[in-house]
Amino acid sequence: MRRPIFAANWKMHKTLSEAAAFTQEFLPLVAPREGVDIVLCPPFTALGAVAWSVAGSRVALGAQNMYRETHGAFTGEVSPVMLADIGCRYVILGHSERRQYFGERDDLINQKVKAAFAHGLTPILCVGETLAEREEGRTEAVCRSQALACTEGLSAEQAATLVIAYEPVWAIGTGRNCAAADAQATVALIRSLLAGRFGESAAASLRIQYGGSVKPGNTAEYMALPDVDGALVGGASLEAVSFAAICQAGAVR
Ligand code: PEP
Questions:
Q1: How many CB atoms within 10 Å of residue 169?
Q2: Looking at ligand 1, which atom is closest to the CA of residue 213?
Q3: What is the pTM of this model?
Q4: Which of 97, 104, 129, 167 is the catalytic position?
Q5: pLDDT tens profile 183-205
Q6: Where does ligand 1 bind, in terms of residues with CB under 6 Å?
Q7: To test the ligand 1 pocket, which listed residue (101, 172, 242, 247) has its Cβ within 8 A of the most ligand atoms?
């Protein structure tokens, strides 16, 4: 039985005071919810404040990105060592916005995934097709190639603890979410590919989220899918009440 995991990707939103206001409102709303993992991924500037706010609670801290090296002359970058030091347990890697706007490719993302594991962080590895790729009938091929390239060189033990977010790019921030049957088909494909590489046991343990215009009103539909183990949530995670409702809908499974 995989434990559902819900992660809030705040992207480039929230100042320190806005992050503090969120956690103050959010933590009491999720305090009694057992059975799901909840992760807040604020921007780097708010990691310290959110770490302090969630300390001792059931909510974990994650970052939205990191570099593959531990330290050095990499101006503007943040390392896995720094993230672990500030209290992060998770890190989102390979988000489509990193791929689209910052040119991140699978080989770099794979290096980051390995670096995250090496420093005790659990990667939330994002894969997903663009609208053009979907319309060309390439959803499976794109997800296969991203999932395999980005997990190359991991051990079965690492793969078993990995979190993958299947995020159709055309569904991110658009309000146009993926039909449940389509999401299940792609997520099941990803799980079976990873079973081929890491074995059935690791593939049965690793968690796969759906991401793309998840809202309180559609969470239950995705959580009813046999291979979907939670959600990576952007827009609807910016309001405490809305993200708490998503976590609550996930706890029902
Ligand atoms: C995301 O940023 O990963 C995401 C899924 O965004 P949204 O929920 O706004 O579609």
A1: 23
A2: 10
A3: 0.97
A4: 167
A5: 999 999 999 999 999 999 999 99
A6: 9, 167, 172-173, 211-214, 232-236
A7: 172
Q: Which numbered atom of ligand 1 lies nearest the CA of 211? A: 5
The predicted-structure confidence for 115-164, as pLDDT tens digits, reads as follows 999 999 999 999 999 999 999 999 999 999 999 999 999 999 999 999 99
